[in-house]
């Protein structure tokens, strides 16, 4: 088992530099353009695919890293370049995480590469959980999956919302209710293969931030998928449902297993935004002069930067600890995964706002990127579990009480 360490290996340092160079040379210069266009940055995704950054092999390498730190490192660097473009590049990873968390090894081998495609034919994946009336409360999902035993097919009906890559993805991983009476314990995940009839894109959302990342509704109208598209298989599902009906504990909740795996990486994205804003504000404070001296010589500014740096480093410690614990099989006894996402997300909002304050009017105009980074940061206190939900998870973990 890998020991937790803040000292990166030579391979990890090289990967960090490789991703950072791509973020600095390709992603950041394009951030403003694609934010304005509010479109999926296909040319940049293709560039990432050409160098192997957008690929099943690269994400597998990250998943297999004994320390668990490669994926958070890569996410931080890409988000440092631009969070919207970074999410477009790494958005498919959430679909892959859904397959890895809930599927069999055979399903991962079959469907994993299809989440990314090839440099010649790039493909996307989406993970569809949230619904118009079921965001934080995943136990109330209305999307239904009914088994047609005669045809060995599952029939899916419902509407998903706030889905990254929703409707434009080639592979959709959909969480649906098989037994509504069991709440979240009666749910399962399904692969919807490319060009499956009945799946369509609903409304595309125009967002405050991360605007280069496609977010839309996914409509499922009598979508039929083969029996082997049930992640984990029917035998395993039947056993889990039987235990749940008997009142036994079940650890197979479909959506939560995916979110547990992804939260440290989402926290790392928020960390990347915060670091970008801090570095930009620090450089500005050293160069900007007022009353005959650089503004960083004033305690009011210097102390802001000190607090920003402290929160960023604390966020990284939480993110790396959670990623390491997840990779090495340690239980999140105190909600460590939620802690990392909670603190990093709120740090990103705090740091980007302080960066604007340090820059004054210049921070508020689009000539400088900090206003965009502030808009991008806010979603990290909302998606994949709001800050309130993360606090609820931590509170339940540390108290042993079902806090409502």
Structural commentary:
By secondary structure, this protein is α+β, with helices and mostly antiparallel strands. It folds into three domains: 10-115, Orthogonal Bundle (Butyryl-Coa Dehydrogenase, subunit A, domain 1), CATH 1.10.540.10; 125-245, Butyryl-CoA Dehydrogenase, subunit A, domain 2, CATH 2.40.110; 254-399, Up-down Bundle (Butyryl-CoA Dehydrogenase, subunit A, domain 3). 52% of the residues lie in helices and 14% in strands. The strands form three sheets. It has a four-stranded antiparallel beta sheet, covered by helices on one side. α4 crosses α8 (254-287), α5 packs antiparallel against α8 and α10 packs antiparallel against α12 (370-377).
Relevant terms:
Butyryl-CoA Dehydrogenase, subunit A, domain 3, 52% helix, three-stranded mixed β-sheet, Butyryl-CoA Dehydrogenase, subunit A, domain 2, Butyryl-Coa Dehydrogenase, subunit A, domain 1, 404 residues
The strand line-up of the biggest sheet is: 2-3-7-6
Q: How many β strands by DSSP?
A: 9
The shape is globular
The profile of the biggest β sheet is: 4 strands, antiparallel
**Name of the CATH first level of the largest domain:** Mainly Alpha
Note the beta-strand portion: 5-15%
Secondary structure: helix percent? 40-55%
CATH topology of the largest domain: Butyryl-CoA Dehydrogenase, subunit A, domain 3
Number of helices: 13
């Amino acid at each position: 088992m890998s020991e937790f360490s803040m000292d990166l290996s030579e391979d990890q340092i090289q990967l960090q530099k490789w991703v950072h160079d791509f973020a600095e040379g390709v992603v950041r210069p394009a951030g403003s353009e694609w934010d304005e266009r509010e479109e999926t940055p296909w040319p940049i995704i293709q560039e990432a695919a050409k160098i192997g950054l957008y690929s099943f092999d690269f994400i597998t390498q990250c998943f297999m890293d004994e320390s668990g730190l490669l994926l958070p490192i890569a996410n931080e660097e890409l988000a440092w370049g631009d969070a919207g473009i970074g999410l477009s590049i790494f958005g498919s990873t959430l679909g892959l995480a859904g397959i890895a968390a809930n599927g069999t090894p055979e399903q991962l081998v079959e469907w994993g590469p299809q989440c990314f495609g090839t440099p010649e034919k790039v493909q996307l994946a989406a993970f569809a959980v949230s619904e118009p009336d079921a965001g934080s409360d995943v136990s109330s999902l209305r999307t239904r999956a009914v088994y047609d035993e005669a045809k060995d097919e599952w029939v899916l009906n419902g509407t998903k919302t706030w889905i990254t890559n929703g409707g434009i993805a080639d592979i959709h991983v959909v969480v649906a209710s098989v037994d509504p009476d069991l709440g979240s314990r009666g749910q399962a995940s399904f692969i919807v293969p490319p060009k499956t009839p009945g799946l369509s894109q609903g409304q595309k959302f125009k967002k405050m931030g991360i605007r280069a990342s496609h977010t839309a509704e996914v409509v499922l109208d009598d979508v039929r998928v083969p029996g082997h598209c049930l992640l984990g298989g029917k035998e395993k599902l039947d056993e889990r449902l039987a235990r749940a009906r008997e009142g036994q504990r079940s650890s197979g909740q479909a959506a939560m297993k995916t979110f547990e795996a992804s939260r440290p990486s989402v926290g790392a994205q928020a960390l990347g935004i915060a670091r970008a804003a801090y570095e930009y504000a620090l450089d500005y404070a050293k160069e900007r002069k007022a009353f005959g001296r650089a503004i960083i010589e004033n305690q009011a500014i210097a102390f802001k930067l000190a607090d920003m740096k402290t929160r960023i480093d604390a966020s990284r410690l939480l993110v790396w600890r959670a990623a390491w614990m997840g990779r090495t099989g340690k239980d999140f006894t105190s909600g460590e995964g939620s802690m990392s996402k909670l603190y990093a997300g709120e740090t990103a909002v705090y740091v980007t706002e302080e960066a604007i304050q340090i820059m004054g009017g210049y921070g508020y105009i689009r000539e400088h990127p900090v206003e965009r980074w502030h808009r991008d940061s806010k979603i990290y206190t909302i998606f994949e579990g709001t800050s309130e939900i993360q606090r609820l998870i931590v509170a339940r973990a540390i108290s042993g009480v079902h806090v409502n």
